[in-house]
Structures are given as C-alpha cells and as structure tokens.
Amino acid sequence: MTLSIIVPTLGRSTLEDALSSIVPQLYYGDEVLVVRDSHGDPSDATRVRKRIEAFGPQVKYLEHDAGRHYYGGVAQSN
Q1: 3-state secondary structure of 53
Q2: Which element (helix H / strand E) includes 20?
Q3: For the whole prediction, is pTM greater than 0.85?
C-alpha cells in the first residue's frame, strides 16, 4: 500500500516545516504532492519548486489550472 499526502500551498512560509515533518515518515513508494493554487503571484511557483527540491524525489510539485478559482479545502478535492 502506498500513501499520497497533499499539501496545498500559496506563498506558505511554513512549507519547509511541514515537509520536514512529513518526509522522514514516508515509506518506499509514498509521495507528497505540493499543490500550488495558480491565482497568486506567478513568481511564487518558481520559489516553491526551488524550496521543495531539497526534499528529494518523493516530493512532487503540482499547480492548479489558472481560472479554476477554487480555494482551500475545495481545491484539494478537485
């Protein structure tokens, strides 16, 4: 059984703290999906990608399509 953990973010200053807590608890095949809502500052996407690179291949970056206009928990389930 594998586990996927979704971490929504939009300029989150505590992203590293969250990932530092999650990643050491992962097993082989588990993954963390960092999902950025695209309605924010476009330069934030580059910063988020750079910030998660240090956590290894189990942490993946995804971005919501522009114009979807979902917020918070609703965006996580769509």
Answers
A1: helix
A2: helix 15-22
A3: no
Q: How far is CA 9 from CA 25, 28, 29, 64, in A?
A: 20, 24, 23, 11
pLDDT tier at 38, thresholds 50, 70, 90: low
Q: Residue with structure tokens 């928990």?
A: 73
Nearest to 8 by CA among 66, 61, 57, 46: 61
3-state helix, strand, coil in the chain (%, to 5): 35, 20, 45
At 66 the pLDDT is: 60
Distance CA 67, CA 15 (A): 24
CA distances from 77 to 6, 7, 21, 38, 54 (A): 10, 12, 23, 16, 27
Distances (CA, A) of 52 to 1, 32, 47, 58: 24, 10, 9, 10
